[in-house]
């Protein structure tokens, strides 16, 4: 048997320590010019410490023909990252040592050792998801960051950032509540929040019709329900409302209009029902073609680049409510349902038209 240019008897070609038979796949040549199996080579000449080695060989503590006894703790290899110090401001922010490519962790243009990249308080290992960069230029896990730099007060945070002294039942009645005063910094006229007149910063900005609102101020003017871009309605009084309050205050009134909230105005006497039409007159050519009043976004219907009120968007003859399926735009700049359009502008004579509409007598 050949190994390292030497000839061996087949019976002698075995591990120098455990006498295991060897072949070309499991032979390891040691620095002492002897041959070993992979397990014995790893124990004698391989790296030592927790985490090195693999398989059963890394878990064995055998000596030559017995078992080694451990009276103390097994030594753990901890590389000293401070043995090579870097120039000031160029090394690891935690230990000040030089950081090489194989152990580099990045956080906000700063380079950490992998072993140093842990929470400053609880020393939990971090990654790009868990790491929080703090104002003191150190890194924290999310829980420790919340306890140190997060908002304080009832309702903020969760169970992770609750006080450490919490044991069992706690009386919450005396816990202070954080109330944000949005009027503490007043804005110039016409530049602040329309509701409280305070300065609106980027982190709390909500846009509606070219105006900036605080998030806590962006609520219905009547019922104070929090609003979003879908539920907000811009009203003629320059306030914002939820859809239900807008319909009750500015929408059409009467039997058959709106939904449940709009029925509160019904008295039961049909003769007294009427439609409340908008009162603001629009500049010429910009309002509703039927009533010439201002058309707001919450009630507008579009037809050939003209804006109509929803309550005005009906047939000019029979006042039937219209939609995209039965709308006909006429030469007189009015809108009609299909039967009325045919009666006024359709082809007349025997054999023209279809359905019951053609059986009507024309003047």
UniProtKB/TrEMBL annotation:
One of the GO BP terms on file: muscle tissue development
Top-level taxon in the UniProt lineage: Eukaryota
Major location category of this protein: nucleus
Keywords: LIM domain, Metal-binding, Myogenesis, Nucleus, Repeat, Zinc
Domain LIM zinc-binding: 1-47, 90-151, 191-252, 286-347
Name of one Pfam family that matches: LIM
Keyword NADP on entry: no
CDD domains: LIM_CRP_like
GO cellular component labels: nucleus; Z disc
A GO molecular-function descriptor: structural constituent of muscle
Keyword Metal-binding: yes
Subcellular location: Nucleus
Name of the protein: LIM zinc-binding domain-containing protein
């Amino acid at each position: 048997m050949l190994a390292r240019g030497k000839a061996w008897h087949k019976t002698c070609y075995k591990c120098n320590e455990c006498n295991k038979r060897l072949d070309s796949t499991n032979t390891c040549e040691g620095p002492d010019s002897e041959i070993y199996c992979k397990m014995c080579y790893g124990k004698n000449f391989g790296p030592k410490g927790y985490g090195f080695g693999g398989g059963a060989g890394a878990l064995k503590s055998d000596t030559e023909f017995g078992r080694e006894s451990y009276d103390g703790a097994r030594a753990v290899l901890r590389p000293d990252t401070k043995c090579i110090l870097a120039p000031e401001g160029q090394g690891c922010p935690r230990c000040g040592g030089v950081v090489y490519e194989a152990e580099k962790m990045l956080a906000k243009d700063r380079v950490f050792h992998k072993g140093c990249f842990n929470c400053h308080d609880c020393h939990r290992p971090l990654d790009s998801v868990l790491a929080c960069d703090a104002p003191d230029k150190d890194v924290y896990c999310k829980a420790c960051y919340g306890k140190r730099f997060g908002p304080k007060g009832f309702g903020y945070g969760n169970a992770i950032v609750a006080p450490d002294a919490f044991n069992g039942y706690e009386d919450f009645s005396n816990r202070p509540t954080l109330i944000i005063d949005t009027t503490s910094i007043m804005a110039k006229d016409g530049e602040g929040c329309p509701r409280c007149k305070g300065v609106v910063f980027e982190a709390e900005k909500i846009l509606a019709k070219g105006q900036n609102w605080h998030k806590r101020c962006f609520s219905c003017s009547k019922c104070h329900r929090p609003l979003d871009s879908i539920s907000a309605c811009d009203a003629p009084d320059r306030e914002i409302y939820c859809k239900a309050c807008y319909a009750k205050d500015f929408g059409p009134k009467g039997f058959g209009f709106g939904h449940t909230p709009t029925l509160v105005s019904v008295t039961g006497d049909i003769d007294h029902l009427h439609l409340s039409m908008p009162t603001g007159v629009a500049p010429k050519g910009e309002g509703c073609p039927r009533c010439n009043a201002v058309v707001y976004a919450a009630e507008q219907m579009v037809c050939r680049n003209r804006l109509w009120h929803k309550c005005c968007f009906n047939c000019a003859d029979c006042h039937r409510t219209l939609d995209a399926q039965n709308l006909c735009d006429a030469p007189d700049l009015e809108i009609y349902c299909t039967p009325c359009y045919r009666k006024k502008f359709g082809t007349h004579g025997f054999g023209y038209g279809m359905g019951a509409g053609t059986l009507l007598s024309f003047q």
